[in-house]
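Thread title: Can someone regenerate the structure for this chain?

I was given the following input by a collaborator and told the matching structure tokens would be attached. They weren't. Posting the sequence so someone can regenerate them.
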Amino acid sequence: MTGVEPAVDPRAPTTPGSSEAKAAVPNRLSPAGGEPAIDVRDLGIRYNLNLTRKTTLKGSLARVWRRDNEAPNHFWALRHVNIRLEHGESLGVIGPNGAGKSTLLLALAGILSPSEGRVLMHGRVSTLLTLGAGFEQELTGRDNIDLAAAFLGIDHRQMAALAPSIIEFADIGPFIDAPVKTYSTGMKARLGFAIATAITPDILLLDEVLGTGDQTFRARSQQRIRELTERAKAIVLVTHDLTYVTEFCNRAVLIELGTIIKEGAPAEIVQLYRERVAQRKLLAEADAHRFATPPGT
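Best answer:
Regenerated them for you:
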């Protein structure tokens, strides 16, 4: 793609949405000398809360009586998010539940369209956002490999050549010819990961995948991720397993309430996250003690 504006520096630990967070910095070119793998600029994803409400006459009258129609009818799942990821970099995305991590991956995958800002992806994208996502439950694992090829626009002959290695990596034995609905969560994870990484994508998006399966699969998936990174592939990994972030990633971001709190070295960001979790726990305990203590005691 051409006509790319100067990228926003996502590494500065500024307050999300501040003018400093939007300052232009010189472009950092990929190892190949081209565009970055991922270029996210001032991304915002807004959900319309009206679409999730069940409308009834009784509820409508109650809202009019309480003047609830003046309440906000939308929710920003992400706001002012800036990320630039080069080929060969792996980014760990961490944060509490509801922070917007999975929403970010959905936007990177093109499943969600930005409400504001833009997302530029340069290269073939492969995603494994949820275990078993895209699998047809009534079809066999082998048939789902062919289905994935059609979905990804991969030539049938190319996928046929890749199928043996996919089946070998998944290592689910005779279940490859059984309906996916009979698979355990770990088996779905192995097959999904094998398919997602077999096509050697330029950009790989993973959501809570590496923490599943037995130790053997986890070790093999770790090695596959390392191989992809060494071949100058870009990887975005969302996980609650902080050990994976420090082991796999060379950069990390902490997201809370839909904004990036800080980006930097994985060990630094993981430590910041732990400190903020501990601080919130202490505040919650203090509030619980305050409300549990009778007045005057």
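The beta strands are 38-48, 74-85, 90-94, 116-121, 125-128, 203-207, 234-238, 251-256, 259-264.
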